[in-house]
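Tokens as discussed.
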């Protein structure tokens, strides 16, 4: 089981009164024997532009903006500094993240919820992962199966009183679509990768609405119509008129007429 830490640094750059985001992404991976992998990537305005290949001892540009940085950083001294800094960061990460919290005796599975938020021009996806133990976990965003590195930010690990942990990861949708985006979680308590999407939540909401509509049409509506029919019938039906007084008046009038004739 690998343990990962994602670190994002963001620098705001203002060019010709326009704001741009310059990002760095660091990933450290471990197993029970120690460190097994690490990466250092660069991004600009949410797009991958360059990464440091420590195996080949080279800086590799992945876009046009990254080629300028590649020329400036291709010397060995720069690569050596990055390698030493990665070792220092990953060593500190290992020390912190591999210290287990003994308040729980067994692994607790995380609960994952993906939702959307933000205004029209600042939309984002939020992935809340909570209730897991131990605190070694990997949470990442993918789009159609491919990892998304940039436009991502995280709260880091937050402890709960019961000994479990929580973290929230955000994905900016300024430069990308939410279609096909998933939040993937890997944890010791899970069998494989747990994938959640905001589309699943929308489908659940749609099913609830359909179920509510079916209940209304199948049960509530007939009951309402029946009650309405009874109410109308009670208010339109009048009691029969009492004709006894009219008969007595007619009889009295006839008697008066008869008395006048005699």
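Sequence:
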């Amino acid at each position: 089981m690998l343990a990962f830490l994602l670190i994002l640094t963001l620098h705001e750059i203002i060019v010709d009164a326009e704001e741009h985001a310059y990002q760095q992404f660091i990933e450290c991976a471990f197993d029970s024997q120690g460190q097994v992998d690490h990466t250092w990537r660069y991004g600009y305005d949410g797009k991958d532009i360059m990464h440091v290949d420590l195996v080949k001892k080279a800086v590799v540009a992945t876009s046009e903006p990254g080629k300028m940085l590649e020329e400036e950083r291709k010397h060995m001294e720069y690569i050596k500094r990055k390698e030493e800094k990665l070792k220092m960061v990953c060593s500190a990460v290992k020390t912190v993240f591999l210290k287990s919290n003994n308040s729980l005796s067994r692994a607790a599975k995380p609960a994952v919820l993906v939702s959307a938020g933000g205004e029209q021009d600042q939309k984002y996806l939020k992935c809340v992962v909570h209730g897991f133990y131990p605190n070694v976990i990997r949470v990442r965003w993918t789009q159609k199966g491919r990892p998304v590195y940039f436009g991502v930010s995280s709260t880091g690990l937050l402890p709960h009183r019961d000994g479990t942990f929580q973290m929230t990861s955000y994905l900016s949708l300024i430069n990308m679509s939410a279609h096909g985006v998933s939040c993937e979680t890997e944890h010791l308590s899970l069998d494989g990768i747990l994938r959640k999407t905001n589309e699943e939540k929308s489908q659940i909401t749609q099913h609830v609405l359909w179920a509510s509509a079916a209940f209304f049409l199948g049960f509530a509506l007939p009951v309402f119509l029946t009650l309405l029919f009874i109410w109308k019938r009670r208010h339109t039906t009048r009691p029969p008129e009492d004709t006894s007084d009219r008969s007595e008046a007619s009889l009295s009038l006839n008697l008066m007429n008869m008395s006048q004739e005699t």
